[in-house]
Amino acid sequence: MTTRADVPANRRRCRWAKSPLDIRYHDREWGVPVHDDRRLFECLILEGAQAGLSWSTILRKRPAYRKAFDNFDARKIARYSPAKVRRLLADAGIVRHRGKIEATIANARAFLAARGEHGTFDRYVRSFATPEAMSKDLIKRGFRFVGPTICEAFMQAIGVGRPDLIGWSDGGNIALDLAINHPERIGRMAITGANFRVDGFAPEVIEWIKQVKPGEFDPAAPRR
Questions:
Q1: Which residues are catalytic?
Q2: Which domains are present in the chain?
Q3: CA pair distance 137, 91, nearest whole angstrom
Q4: pLDDT 10s digit of each residue in the chain, 224 long?
Q5: HEC string for the chain
Q6: Which of 50, 53, 82, 160 fits a 20 to 30 Å CA distance from 211?
């Protein structure tokens, strides 16, 4: 799992990070670029599972989700039987919502197809500039629980940010928050070899960011 060191004391946290578990996730995972396909699939499924619930609820259930869904092995999930669905519906550790469980199975199949077409799921999801575009294409491919709001949260979580192009209602602000109030994440993007023009920040934006002091930019609260 890609993580980073804790946020320094003088850095701002997003408003949704309130509980100790939220804070740990925010400081160590959220916004850090993820390129591993299994982790991307896990994140997409969990973002969908959050629909109508709080992110804190999903974080608390994440270990149970990993156990129940074979550590998010899409090949195994794609072969789940009706009997497996019944067992999942009886699992108190996860969100026992038939629609979301069946969507996970459908999404595993769609994930495998998309990965087969594009080589990696990472390459596929990073080809979109906006959550609306991603959502439209995912739905066309048979994914479920992937509306624009869920895709926006997914893109933010995996470190996709183009504040000079993004047309999100508050996603651009969140991307800038990462850059200004958590500048160490830009360094991680560079270390991982990410292309700033694709999933990081455009050079002219980075130059502007360097002139803004931490705390001077107050982002809109992300829609978690």
A1: 25, 47, 55
A2: 35-158 (1.10.340.30), 161-224 (no CATH)
A3: 31
A4: 445 545 444 456 778 888 999 999 988 888 888 999 999 999 999 999 999 999 999 999 999 999 999 999 999 999 999 999 999 999 999 999 999 999 999 999 999 999 999 999 999 998 888 889 999 999 999 999 999 999 989 998 998 854 333 333 333 444 555 555 555 554 433 333 333 333 344 455 555 555 555 444 444 434 44
A5: CCCCCCCCCCCCCCCCCCCHHHHHHHHHCCCCCCCCHHHHHHHHHHHHHCCCCCHHHHHHHHHHHHHHCHHHCHHHHCCCCHHHHHHHHCCCCCCCCHHHHHHHHHHHHHHHHHHHHHCCHHHHHCCCCCHHHHHHHHHHCCCCCCCHHHHHHHHHHCCCCCCCCCCCCCHHHHHHHHHHHCCHHHHHHHHCCCCHHHHCCCHHHHHHHHCCCCCCCCCCCCCC
A6: 160
Record the tokens describing residue 16, joined without a space: 């949704």
